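sorry for the late reply, my laptop died twice this morning and i had to redo everyting from scratch. anyway the thing you sent over, i finally got around to it. pasting the sequence first so we're on the same page, its 87 residues, then the predicted structure underneath. double check i copied it right bc i was rushing
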Amino acid sequence: MAIYVDRPTWPGHGMLWSHLISDTSYDELHDFAAGLGIPRRAFERDHYDVMESRFDQVVAAGAEVVTTREIVRKLLASGLRVRAADA
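ok and here's the structure:
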């Protein structure tokens, strides 16, 4: 299992957000998110947006904390990166 999350630093809707990814498959990512009750509507192209209030829960469930830069690198290396222009 290869699930990663960055620290919540992205502002939106009055709170901070993290990015949750898999470097293996979208199925693995969807299964992980569903197991935590993260709604599918939080999925955006190649990652889930996760509220800062859920960060500790995501990490406790097994997501490895990495930098935002590492999130992008892992998505690119896995071939799972979807740029907004490509969506």
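Strands lie at 3-5, 10-12, 15-22, 43-44, 47-51, 64-65.
thats about all i looked at so far, will dig more tmrw
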